[in-house]
Amino acid sequence: EIAKAKKKPAEARAVIQIGIVIGGADGDFDASEQAVVREACFALDLPPHEFDL
């Protein structure tokens, strides 16, 4: 589903930023949560390092 945002860079980045916010909502953006968001970056053709992942 998230791949639908792939053609729209602003939306793709928003998807990743939302994932980061949700992952850190409990105060701890742990390694497994980071890995999921990193996978989303790859699905959207965004470099994970752009989001410090």
From TrEMBL:
Gene3D superfamilies named among the record's database cross-references? TerB-like
Read off the Pfam families from this record: TerB
Q: Where is the Co-chaperone DjlA N-terminal domain?
A: 5-52
Domain of life per record: Bacteria
Q: Which InterPro entries match?
A: DjlA_N (IPR007791), TerB-like (IPR029024)
Which spans are transmembrane here?
none
Q: What is this protein called?
A: Tellurite resistance TerB
Organism of derivation: Streptomyces sp. SID7499
